[in-house]
């Protein structure tokens, strides 16, 4: 198992980062929040989880050990693979997921693309004794309904991390949100929303 990667950030994209270690560039798939912390040319250390498939080896990276722990625990639920687990962490923080599972908040889980009501109920049943207790402060904040829409925060952080100004990021997010409202469809995953925001910025 590769527990972490440490080196210089060579590149940052919408859903991946390249960390240079000893002349080798290692591609790591990350959440927007993790990518937002990375700066090209600066040192970085990411906790990692290696997913082995017959046809591929994929490395997932996280700014915090707790994110990696939750990422791996989420995959112990039937039907939750690495991509869905990453999408869950892109929409909700580890503690928000603990709150959702502990309180059987199906609505919170169905905010994640790819999770329907039945799937959310199944995840709650399978993970309620595995994720651990949520942080009390976070639980209280969510109960009060004061948490901002998670995807907006994640996309904003991702855009700023890629070098756009906060003002440009906010305008692009507003444009994407307007498109979503007009289409009335399901919200894509955060990576898809980040790409949509980048397209808005590229035509300005």
From TrEMBL:
<dbReference type="GO" id="GO:0009379">
    <property type="term" value="C:Holliday junction helicase complex"/>
</dbReference>
<dbReference type="GO" id="GO:0005524">
    <property type="term" value="F:ATP binding"/>
</dbReference>
<dbReference type="InterPro" id="IPR010994">
    <property type="entry name" value="RuvA_2-like"/>
</dbReference>
<dbReference type="GO" id="GO:0009378">
    <property type="term" value="F:four-way junction helicase activity"/>
</dbReference>
<keyword id="KW-0963">Cytoplasm</keyword>
<dbReference type="Pfam" id="PF07499">
    <property type="entry name" value="RuvA_C"/>
</dbReference>
<feature type="region of interest" description="Domain III">
    <location>
        <begin position="147"/>
        <end position="204"/>
    </location>
</feature>
<dbReference type="InterPro" id="IPR000085">
    <property type="entry name" value="RuvA"/>
</dbReference>
<dbReference type="GO" id="GO:0006281">
    <property type="term" value="P:DNA repair"/>
</dbReference>
<dbReference type="GO" id="GO:0048476">
    <property type="term" value="C:Holliday junction resolvase complex"/>
</dbReference>
<keyword id="KW-0238">DNA-binding</keyword>
<feature type="domain" description="Helix-hairpin-helix DNA-binding motif class 1">
    <location>
        <begin position="72"/>
        <end position="91"/>
    </location>
</feature>
<keyword id="KW-0233">DNA recombination</keyword>
<dbReference type="InterPro" id="IPR003583">
    <property type="entry name" value="Hlx-hairpin-Hlx_DNA-bd_motif"/>
</dbReference>
<keyword id="KW-0234">DNA repair</keyword>
<dbReference type="InterPro" id="IPR036267">
    <property type="entry name" value="RuvA_C_sf"/>
</dbReference>
<keyword id="KW-0227">DNA damage</keyword>
<dbReference type="GO" id="GO:0000400">
    <property type="term" value="F:four-way junction DNA binding"/>
</dbReference>
<dbReference type="InterPro" id="IPR011114">
    <property type="entry name" value="RuvA_C"/>
</dbReference>
<comment type="subunit">
    <text>Homotetramer. Forms an RuvA(8)-RuvB(12)-Holliday junction (HJ) complex. HJ DNA is sandwiched between 2 RuvA tetramers; dsDNA enters through RuvA and exits via RuvB. An RuvB hexamer assembles on each DNA strand where it exits the tetramer. Each RuvB hexamer is contacted by two RuvA subunits (via domain III) on 2 adjacent RuvB subunits; this complex drives branch migration. In the full resolvosome a probable DNA-RuvA(4)-RuvB(12)-RuvC(2) complex forms which resolves the HJ.</text>
</comment>
<comment type="similarity">
    <text>Belongs to the RuvA family.</text>
</comment>
<dbReference type="GO" id="GO:0006310">
    <property type="term" value="P:DNA recombination"/>
</dbReference>
<dbReference type="Pfam" id="PF14520">
    <property type="entry name" value="HHH_5"/>
</dbReference>
<comment type="function">
    <text>The RuvA-RuvB-RuvC complex processes Holliday junction (HJ) DNA during genetic recombination and DNA repair, while the RuvA-RuvB complex plays an important role in the rescue of blocked DNA replication forks via replication fork reversal (RFR). RuvA specifically binds to HJ cruciform DNA, conferring on it an open structure. The RuvB hexamer acts as an ATP-dependent pump, pulling dsDNA into and through the RuvAB complex. HJ branch migration allows RuvC to scan DNA until it finds its consensus sequence, where it cleaves and resolves the cruciform DNA.</text>
</comment>
<dbReference type="InterPro" id="IPR012340">
    <property type="entry name" value="NA-bd_OB-fold"/>
</dbReference>
<feature type="domain" description="Helix-hairpin-helix DNA-binding motif class 1">
    <location>
        <begin position="107"/>
        <end position="126"/>
    </location>
</feature>
<dbReference type="GO" id="GO:0005737">
    <property type="term" value="C:cytoplasm"/>
</dbReference>
<dbReference type="InterPro" id="IPR013849">
    <property type="entry name" value="DNA_helicase_Holl-junc_RuvA_I"/>
</dbReference>
<dbReference type="Pfam" id="PF01330">
    <property type="entry name" value="RuvA_N"/>
</dbReference>
<protein>
    <recommendedName>
        <fullName>Holliday junction branch migration complex subunit RuvA</fullName>
    </recommendedName>
</protein>
């Amino acid at each position: 198992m590769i527990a972490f990667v440490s080196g210089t950030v060579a590149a940052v994209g919408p859903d991946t980062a390249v960390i240079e270690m000893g002349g080798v560039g290692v591609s790591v798939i990350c959440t927007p929040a993790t990518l937002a912390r990375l700066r090209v040319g600066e040192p970085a250390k990411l906790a990692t989880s290696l997913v082995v498939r017959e046809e591929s080896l994929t490395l997932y990276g996280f700014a915090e050990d707790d994110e990696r722990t939750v990422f791996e625990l989420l995959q112990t639920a039937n039907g939750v693979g690495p991509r869905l687990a990453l999408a869950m962490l892109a929409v909700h923080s580890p503690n928000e997921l603990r709150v959702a599972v502990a309180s059987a908040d199906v609505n919170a889980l169905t905010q994640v693309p790819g999770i329907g009501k039945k799937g959310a109920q199944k995840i709650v049943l399978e993970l309620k004794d595995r994720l651990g207790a949520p942080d009390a402060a976070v639980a209280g904040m969510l109960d009060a309904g004061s948490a901002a829409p998670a995807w907006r925060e994640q996309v904003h952080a991702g855009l700023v991390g890629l070098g756009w100004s906060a003002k440009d990021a906010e305008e692009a997010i507003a444009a994407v949100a307007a498109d979503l409202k007009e289409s009335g469809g399901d919200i894509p995953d955060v990576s898809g929303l980040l790409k949509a925001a980048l397209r808005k910025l590229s035509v300005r």
